[in-house]
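User: Structure please.
Assistant: Input sequence and predicted structure:
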Amino acid sequence: MTTMQPDSDAPPPQPERSTPWFEDGNIVLETEGKQWKIYKGILAANSAVFRDMFDVAVGEGLVDGCPVVHLHDSAADLKWVLEALYEPEAQRWSDGGAGAHETMPIAVASAFLRLGRKYEIVHLRKRIAKRFVANFPTTLQDQDRIVQAAESVLAAFDHEVERGDLLALANVIRENELLLCLPFALYLCVLQDAHSTTSVFFAPPGTSTPILSLADIQRCAAAKESLRRLAALELFPWLHQDYKHFFCTRTWCTDAKTRLAGQLLYPLPPCSSFEQWHDSWADGLCARCAIDAHARYNKGRQAIWDQLPAMFGLPDWADLRRHWAE
């Protein structure tokens, strides 16, 4: 029986032409077997890196009489960015217009951050960085505002929790050093894990590699324990029997606190450290105990918020705002 051998003389497959493709374009970009024919001047005007690249060389080989520039980026990423620069419909994501209020696919956000940074397409990166900063709160007041407006923290992004998209967003933020947004992104990952919604060990179907890096998985695991410990120490110290902020000997206050401690602190304290005060928690307390508990709870929320970056190995909020906001 004769075994067919591949024809070593067969020509290599031709790259696929992709949109945008302008017949009167004057430069061709190629990556991962795909090509785009575009206008060199527009790309140079938007990207300092491409401008310098074109000053040195214009590519190798010719397609339709145009030089070809070979890149090493994801074809999907490059397509999103080129569409944003050249096609009016796709520019809704990048021009601050109507698209600023639409949910954005995570793939688009990732591409804009990644290639916007790599090729110094400053307006594109800044526009998307602004979207991240607006939707991942960096103050407790911002977090409260989003909750009170009944908005999702992730309302700006087209995502599915069960698909691990929140983990993917945390990776995008880490990869692109938009670290101001990372504490709350990883905090949400911890909450999902604690509520058994999506494990921090989650791997996409068909793979065995978790979405999060091993280092971030370890940070999330440690943060979950820290959040539980701080809930008992900072949010609910007034539920402990030895708590004596002021003298109160009312039996009904002690009984009410004991019942509430059983509900909130056992078998484990909560990880959700930034919920607002529930009026029902004051049921059965005297007026002074209720006022004290409410004040102590709010003070504890802020104390835990201030510690949130450190739980994930990051600088404090002030340093993150100075150096890692875009």
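The chain has a mean pLDDT of 86.
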